[in-house]
Amino acid sequence: MGGGGRNGGLFTYETLVHAISGAAGSVVAMATFFPLDTVRSRLQLEEGRESKNTLATIRELVMKEGPYTLYRGMVPVLQSLCASNFVYFYTFHGLKMLRSKRNQSAGNDLLVASIAGVINVITTTPLWVVNTRLKMRGVGMDPERNNNEYSTLLDGLLHIWKYEGLGNLWAGTLPSLMLVINPAIQFMTYESIKRRVTATMQGSQPPAWVFFAIGAVAKAVATALTYPLQLVQTKLRQGHKYPNLPPDAGTLQILLYILKKQGMAGLYKGMEAKLLQTVLTAALMFLAYEKISRFVIRILLHRPLLR
Questions:
Q1: Distance in angstroms (rounded) separating the CA atoms of residues 251 and 249
Q2: Environment class of residue 90 by beta-carbon count within 10 Å: exposed (0-12), middle (13-18) or buried (19+)?
Q3: How do residues 86-96 score in pLDDT, each as one tens digit?
Q4: d(Cα 32, Cα 28) in Å, to the nearest integer?
Q5: Nearest-CA neighbor of 79 among 131, 22, 117, 21?
Q6: pLDDT 10s digits, 163-191
Q7: Computed from CA positions of residues 133, 138, 141, 144, in that sequence, does the dihedral angle turn out positive or negative?
């Protein structure tokens, strides 16, 4: 993987390795912390559920619905996450490699991450719409929707397309596009800190816990800044149940409604669970991603046919 492999950009072994490593890392991380994502979804979508701490909510769910409920809808989530992160990491590193090494800066990372985020949202939103529906099936959210008409991603995509229209597969796209700033901030923060840490270590490999810590800090910053939009995004994907709002209420309408009825606390309902879940998941994802990509690239570098 000589000059062509490193500077070619979108169509190189290295870009592919980054994409596969990012996808694999995200699956490992989400599978590890999936119950926290379940708690986040339930707190965001169930209006009557008291916003208790994460551990108390997990205990309550297990006691009332059984341990299985913590892993409801895990397989389609992992499938979607794998596809989503493959697209994101491939685009991010491909675009980054197209630009000069001298252009590496926080501003450049923010721009490239934003473009990657837009491409990711447009291509994978339908997967996340089906995921939200599958995760909330059987928990009393919507008796008409929570039936057994579909149980897989493909069946869900076809069912929504056929009975609700193609547009519903992209429900919540606007807040998703606005939320492109979340991974953009996350990647900008991660890459900036990593560059500084690597520079201070004079080329030596940072220990594993450093990648974990950098990933945690980057995601905490991004989540804290964008949580209200994430809350609205989840409600739009599931379909909100506010009686005084039209079914096709938009992002701003829902934000103002929650603010009026529940105050600022309503806009941050479930944030503790979200922070815990996303920070731990992102930290483990970046750790796994760095380890996998470095391992695979090291193998490729020692194979003459790939140079």
A1: 7
A2: buried
A3: 999 999 988 88
A4: 6
A5: 131
A6: 888 888 898 788 788 888 888 999 999 99
A7: positive
